[in-house]
Inverse folding.
């Protein structure tokens, strides 16, 4: 076959072979990231104070039901981004930076440990309220829909 024939010849696999795989859903991505987060937390546990490690565990515990809820009920993209940032950036980066400190700064209740705990407590606090904020988002969306319906079907003189 010439190059011209190859140009117009049908490929047996068609477009399906060249199509990119569909991206995983947010819940699938977040679940996989949360699992990696927990594995890395367990690996770092020997170098962390019990309080810091407990915060990491609670962060995961707070996010697990939120991610499960998102499997069936879509959440706002900003909430998705916040959840992914907590799991893949905020908490892991704090731990990684802590682990780079000299050993004497990583001691239980040492300066580095206190700094890490402060950061993790803030992240943990955000994850505690995450389910409530997502619920509030749902009520806000329902209220907006009510306004839309009211405006759409408002009759003159009513």
């Amino acid at each position: 076959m010439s190059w011209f024939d190859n140009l117009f010849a049908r490929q047996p696999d068609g477009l399906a072979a060249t199509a990119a795989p569909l991206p995983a859903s947010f819940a699938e991505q977040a679940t996989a990231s949360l699992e990696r987060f927990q594995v890395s937390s367990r690996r770092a546990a020997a170098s962390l104070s019990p309080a810091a490690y407990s915060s990491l565990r609670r962060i995961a515990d707070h996010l697990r039901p939120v991610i499960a809820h998102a499997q069936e009920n879509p959440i706002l993209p900003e909430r998705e981004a916040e959840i992914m940032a907590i799991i893949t950036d905020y908490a892991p980066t704090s731990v990684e930076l802590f682990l780079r400190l000299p050993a004497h700064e990583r001691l239980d209740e040492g300066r580095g440990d206190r700094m890490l705990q402060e950061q993790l407590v803030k992240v943990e606090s955000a994850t505690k309220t995450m389910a409530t904020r997502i619920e509030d988002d749902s009520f806000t969306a329902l209220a907006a829909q009510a306004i839309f319906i009211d405006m759409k079907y408002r009759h003159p003189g009513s």
